[in-house]
Every structure is written in C-alpha cells, then in structure tokens.
Design goal:
Strand order of the largest sheet: 9-10-11-12-13-14-15-16-17-19-23-24-25-26-27-28
Low-confidence stretches: 1-8, 88-94, 331-350, 644-655, 657-665, 809-825
Radius of gyration: 33 Å
Number of helices: 29
Strand content: 15-25%
Mean pLDDT: 81
Structural class: alpha/beta
Number of strands: 30
Length: 825
C-alpha cells in the first residue's frame, strides 16, 4: 500500500544513530569509562540504526554510570532490541478512533509531504493551515484513519477538536479518556496536576496528537504536552486558518503546510461526486452547466460540496441556469477594496492619519493571515475568493435582510433604471469596469455614505444632477476613470464629504466651490496631468489631514503658493508631493511643519539640483523617497537635528548610527528608496541611518562606485545594525559600481537581490549566514554571476540555487514593469 511506503522508517547512519543515542544517555555518561563506551557501541550496533530501538535502549540506560549496571541492562536489552527490529512488539494498528471520511480529492501530494514529517525520529509539531472549508480537517482525518491500516511506530493517536472557544479542561478530558487515566488520579485535581499526569504517561509512549480547528495560540504544556521533554518521535499536528498561529505555536516553517484550493479538474471530480451521475445524466445540457457551476466555486471544497449537494436533485436546465446566475452576482478580485467595503471615513474617524493607515494595514494583514485575503496579481493588489467575498457581502447586508445595503457592480454599460431603484436603500455603491459609459440622471440615494466609480475608462462625464440626492455621502472615489476631464457638477454641495480621490483622472481644474467642503479630510490627486487649483481653496479646507499630489502633477516654481496654503492648514499631517523645481523644493525645506508632514517625496527632472540637504527631522516622517533624472545631483547631505527646549538644535560632528538606531531617534519610517538616472551621484552612505528601510532600487547612476562609502564606515559601526529590514535590493546600469558595503551583512529580511549591468561589482556583502532564512532569489547577468568572488567555496554553494538570469529594464519603464524576462522589484 502507498501508506505503508510512506510510514516506512529508514535506518539511521552510524553518525546520526550515535548522535541520537548520545542525546538520550548523555555524553558525560558515555565518556565516564572505556567499559561503558564499549558497551554502548555494542548495544548501538545491535539496534541496526532503527530509531525506535535506539530510543528504547537510550531511555533504558540513561542515568547510570556504573559498569556492572550497564552490563546487566545491556544483556536485558538484547531480546528487546531483537523484538523491536523484527516488529513483533508493534501493534497492528494504533489505539485510534476511526473518523468519518468521504472520498478525498486533490490531497494526495500534500498528504505524502505531511506523512514524510511523521517518519523523523525527533519529536515535532506540524501545521496545516488555509481558508475555512479548504480541506484541512479532511486531510487530517485521512492521516488519522491511515493509522488503522498500516504498521507504524506509534502507540496511540489522540484526536481533539479545539474550536474557537479553546478549553484546556475539555482537551484534557478527551486525552484522559483516550489514555484511560483512572478516577483516583484525576478527580479533584487542578489543571496543572492533570497536565502532569498526562505528561507522565505520554513520556512512556510514542503518540500522535491531532488538534483540529485551532483559532488561537494553544499552550500545549498546560494540557500536558512538552515536546522538549519527549524524545520518542512523538508528533503533534494542528489545523488552523491562520499561518500566524503556526508561528506562534513554534511550528518550523518547513513543517507549515498550506492547504490550497483545488485545481479545476480536481474540483469538478469532487463536485460530480456530490451531485451524482443520475442528476448529471438527466438532461443533455446539465453536464456542461455543471462545469460552469463548479468553476464558479473556485476550487473551494466546502463550496463544491455544499453547492453539489444542493444541486443533487435538480434535473432541469433552468434550475442550473438560475444557480449560475446566483453564483455570478458578485466579482471577487479587486485592487485596494474597489467594492467599497472599506469605509475610509470609519477607518480614520477620531484618530491621526498615520495611526488610521497602520490600523488599516493591520486589518488587511490579519485577513491575509487568516487566508481570507490573498496577494493579487498587480502591485499592492489583494484579492478575495469568490465564496468568501459573497459571504462577506451577505454579512454586510445584515445576513441577507438588507440586500441593497451594499451594491457592487462591474461592466454594466448603461446603468439601467431598474437597477437604480435599488440605490435608494444603498449605503455603499461600487461601480467599476471598462464597459460603463453612462450613469443615471438623478438617482435618489439619501442613505448613501460611500460611492466608488473606479476604472470606468469609457465614462466621460457625470449627469448634471447626479449628486443632487446624495447629501449624506462621505467617501467619493473616482480614481482611474481616465476620460473624465471635468470635475462633476454638484460635488461642492456634498458638504459631508471627508474623502475625495481623483487620482489618474484627466480632470483639469478643481472647482472654487469646493471651499464649502470644510469636513474634507483626504484629497488625493495622484498621477494627474497639470492641474489648476484655485487660490485659497486648500487653505479653506480646515479639516484637511491628507493631501497627495504625487507621481505626475509635479510642483514647479509656480506652486510655492500652494505650499504656503498647506502650511497654513493646522490639521494637515500627511503629505505626498512631487517636485520638478528647486525653488519649490526649497520652499518645502524651509518649513519645519511641512517637512514633518511629508510621507512620500518624489523629485523629477530637478535640473539645477546639485546638492540635496535633508534634515533628520524631515526624514523621520518620510516613508518613500524617489529621485529621477536629477542629472546634476552630486551629493546628499543629512543634517542631524533634535527637538530641544529651544526648538530644533543642530548636532555637530558625525553622529553614531548605532546610537541613533538604539535610541530610536531618526529615520523610523523610511521604507522605500528609488534613485534612477542621477549620473553624478557618488554614493548613498546616508542610508546607514535608515534602520527600517525595506526596498532599495538604484539604477543608471553611472558615476556611483559605492552604495555605502568605505571611508565613512568606521570600525564602531556594527554590521548587524545596517539593512536589517531590507527585503529587496535592486541595482542596475551602473558600470562604475564596485562595492555595496565593505563587510558582510546579516540581511535577516532580504528576499530579492537583483544586479544588472554592474560589471565591476565582484563581491556581494554576504557570507554563509547572510539572509539564511529569508532569501528567495538572486537575479543578474549570467556573466556577472560567473565572475563573482566569494569568501570561500561553501558560501557560493549556499547561494547558487537562488540565482536566476535576468535582463536590464528600459530606464524609462516603471520598476514594476516587465521587459523581456526580467521584472525589477
């Protein structure tokens, strides 16, 4: 049987066997006398490398250093070892309760990988994680039941369903019943005392503990399991929806297995099994329709089983057509929450914008960790499985009681009047898609709070009375509606607006009537063509906290008045700005308030900029710095300052970066630096102060010889404090580059290194322990890779499997775009 093969234990090599035996008995005991060492060798030879025999012998001999006792014990062990090797003492199956299990589909490969972890001699914990309904419990039931069919090394298998309301007492009761602990040792005992009784028994057994449906970190020691004290190859397997739980419970990364959605073919097999052949053959159209229904379930076993059972008695094509319509109501992939389920007004209500953003990211990360969101295909995109998306909408619609409370519609063409009647009850509406061309004239939406009209690339204008009956709206997002050239009429009347996003539209001018929007907190104008902003408009927005005019509409020397207006708004604390003028940039750098508010800064084509001086206070709030085509820039200087009783005080001399990092004084927020086409720039030594930098992308700086200057890095600068958070390092088109950093760095977070067309860079700042647990890829020219110099041959062997040949990106492309086979990150 396949299962028999999977659980077969390979004998250990002599060195491995001796290591295991030494750990059990103790090296001090083995080295106590030559006689004991000789007896140990002869006993280990009899074990023939079988882990269970070695463990039995080691546990028998531990604690004794008297030669006479060893002689007696080793003689007694002879017959026991023979029985262990022959398998005569093994149970035909473990003391295991069979679990109900239907046919499993698509789990065989993962099943074998998990079972391979069960054969190691070390005690250990294994985790299965993934979306609810994806098959974690089914897979663990398959593992449980296989112990009934195959010979193996375990004495008992214990299944505990933990559930959301985890209870130590309940888990102990299940285990107590399995281990048949008598009442005299159980009744009237505390949880700690019961845990001790469980542990005493388990130390003498080889067991498998199966913990199903773990919702939060479970302290196994409180139940009675202590893996550090158990050296008999016992195992614990958990199932959970969150990978975070796996890490918190100490599961090694290589033993964390994600249970994935089924492939289309596997999904259809499962679906057909639940529908039944009789229903499928009841009408010639149903087989084709059933494929569509199964495809809409997107590989989620729970959905396939539930829908399949519901359709098992549906013998008419009309019933299947209706099922397809129901399942296709809502799209599932979105970029940045296009369906409007994230209420921005609610996110930052009553708190500063930085904390609101941090909390928003935390929500998204928690949902990703719980497998309720996944990484999308685009930059900073996320997606949600269709079934989960529909369930979220159902919950948002008060469990189906108010189906029109949230409306999400894609690619409608002309929005028909019948749909508009549903808008009266809506609180959130999301419209997007390339086919939307025309909106209704005057929809009545008196309850509407959030409106997204995004990526409607055919939509050129809004009807004049469109916003007339939307007086309570707080969030308006029109971003990426590219053909929109004029600001829709009526926006100035939406006096409750708190958030407006016009990014990536072609709107040419803001309306002077927007001065009435005194509750507006966020105004996003990213990626737009030159935009006319009426004088005194920004200064009149007294509640404005976030202003973003980034990546497109760069500030020239004519925009100094706009900066003055921003400076005058007391609430402003988050700015993202692009500059193409030294005059405008100097205006920014002359204001401590504006510097403290800058989150993203982009400098494009600043022709006269030869020296860039930035204050540490300024960088303390900066998250992203982009510099492009500043062709005269030769040097970047950092003025390190602190806030004192007399305002800002200048530090003299060169500050110690270790001290800055340790005292958490500066550069806490800088995460992303991109510097392209600055041909006179010599180095970026100031980055040693950016302790939390995550991404560094430097390209086409033809004069740069060093990223971090060798002269500047002194012996007092510890390598351990530099680039510890860096995940991506991209260097390209720099023919003079010779060094990234003088010594080897730990790079504990580094995932990607890409080096293209840097022929003089012969060494990477890495050694055998650099990026040991994080690295995923090294990209570069094949010729460059072959010429790299290494500390020694072992270091090269450590990293050779990570290398992948790449090509140089077009300098005018966005770093995220692809050219040839290469994608710069």
């Amino acid at each position: 049987m396949a299962a028999q093969r999977i659980f077969e234990v390979e004998p250990l090599e002599w060195v491995e066997a001796w290591t295991l035996f030494s750990e059990l008995v103790g090296e001090d005991t083995l080295n106590f006398s030559p006689e004991i060492q000789q007896l140990a060798h002869s006993t280990l030879e009899r074990c023939q490398g079988l882990p269970s025999a070695i463990i039995m012998a080691g546990r028998t001999l531990v604690g004794s250093n008297i030669v006479r006792e060893w002689e007696q014990l080793t003689q007694e062990l002879e017959d026991l070892i023979k029985e262990e090797i022959s398998g005569e003492d093994r149970l035909p199956h473990a003391v295991v309760d069979e679990m109900p299990l239907g046919h499993t589909v698509g789990l065989d490969s993962l099943y074998e990988r998990v079972c391979s972890c069960l054969t190691g001699y070390q005690a250990g914990i294994i985790a299965l994680y993934g979306t609810g309904g994806v098959g974690k419990t089914t897979l663990m039931r398959k593992i449980n039941n296989e112990f009934l069919k195959t010979s193996h090394q375990f004495n008992t298998v214990i299944w505990v369903t933990v559930s959301k309301q985890a209870s130590v007492k309940a888990a102990q009761e299940v285990i107590r019943n399995k281990l048949q602990i008598p009442d005299s040792m159980w009744q009237g005992r505390t949880e700690d005392e019961r845990a001790t009784e469980i542990l005493k028994i388990l130390i003498t057994k080889r067991f498998v503990l199966l913990l199903d449906d773990v919702w939060q970190r479970l302290d196994l020691s409180k139940i009675g399991f202590c893996l550090s004290m158990i050296r008999n190859r016992s195992k614990v397997i958990i199932t959970t929806r969150s990978q975070k739980i796996c890490t918190e419970m100490g599961v090694p990364l290589q033993r964390q297995f994600r249970v994935e959605f089924l492939a289309l073919e596997e999904a259809f097999v499962l679906f057909v099994e639940k529908v039944g052949e009789n229903t499928l053959n009841s009408h010639p159209d149903i087989p084709h329709l059933s494929e569509k229904v199964a495809e809409r379930c997107k590989g989620l076993p729970l959905a396939l089983v539930t829908v399949g059972r519901a359709m098992a008695d549906k013998n008419s094509p009309e019933a299947w057509d209706q099922a397809i319509k129901e399942l296709e109501k809502f799209p599932a992939e979105f970029s940045g929450m296009e369906d409007g389920t994230l209420d921005w007004g609610r996110v930052f209500d009553g708190e500063d914008i930085y904390e609101a953003r941090r909390r928003g990211y935390k929500i998204i990360e928690d949902l990703k960790n719980a497998c309720l969101l996944e990484e999308g295909d685009g930059f900073k995109c996320i997606k949600m499985h269709d079934v989960i998306h529909d369930m979220a909408l159902w919950i948002g619609r008060e469990c189906g009681k108010r189906m029109n409370k949230i409306l999400a519609c894609e690619s409608l063409g002309v929005v028909d009047p019948e749909r508009v009647t549903n808008w009266k009850e809506a609180e959130r509406i999301s419209l997007w898609g390339r086919n939307i061309e025309k909106l209704p004239e005057t929809p009545h939406c008196s309850n509407l709070r959030t409106l997204f009209v995004r990526e409607c690339i055919q939509l050129k204008t809004f009807p004049r009375g469109f916003f007339r009956f939307m007086s309570r709206i707080r969030v308006l997002d029109l971003s990426a509606t590219h053909c929109l050239t004029d600001l829709p009429d009526g926006i100035e009347g939406l006096v409750h607006l708190e958030y407006i996003n016009l990014s990536m539209t072609h709107v040419k001018k803001l309306a002077i009537g927007m001065t009435k929007l005194t509750k507006l907190k966020c105004l996003l104008l990213d990626g737009m063509l030159p935009l006319i902003i009426p004088p005194q408009l920004i200064s009149s927005l007294s509640s404005l906290q976030l202003f973003s005019m980034y990546d497109g509409n760069a500030l020239s020397s004519y925009h100094t008045t706009l900066l003055e207006e921003l400076d005058s708004v007391g609430a402003v604390d988050d700015l993202s700005l692009s500059f193409r003028s030294v005059v405008a940039l100097n205006k920014l750098l002359s204001s401590y308030k504006l510097q403290r508010c800058i989150r993203r800064l982009s400098l494009h084509d600043c022709i006269d900029l030869s020296l860039l001086e930035l204050s540490s206070i300024f960088l303390n709030y900066l998250e992203t710095l982009v510099m492009f085509n500043c062709r005269q820039l030769e040097e970047m200087k950092i003025n390190v300052e602190k806030e004192g009783s007399q305002g800002f005080e200048q530090f003299y001399g060169i500050p110690n970066p270790e001290l800055i990092v340790r005292n958490n004084q500066h550069f806490r927020r800088l995460r992303d630096v991109k510097i392209w086409s600055c041909p006179k720039l010599l180095n970026l030594t100031w980055l040693i102060y950016a302790a939390y930098l995550q991404s560094l992308n430097v390209q086409f700086c033809e004069s740069m010889k060093e990223v971090i200057s060798n002269e500047y890095v002194t012996s007092r600068t510890q390598h351990a404090s530099i680039f510890t958070r860096l995940t991506s390092l991209v260097l390209g088109g720099m023919p003079m580059l010779e060094s990234i950093y003088r010594g080897a760095l730990l790079f504990p977070s580094l995932e990607i290194i890409s080096v293209i067309n840097c022929p003089r860079l012969r060494r990477l700042p890495i050694d055998s322990i650099s990026a040991a647990k994080s690295l995923k890829k090294i990209g570069g020219d094949l010729t460059w890779w072959r010429r790299l110099e290494w500390e020694d041959e072992s270091v090269e062997k450590n990293f050779i499997n990570y290398f992948s040949a790449q090509y140089l990106a077009d300098p005018m492309q966005d770093p995220g775009e692809v050219k040839g086979k290469m994608k710069l990150v």
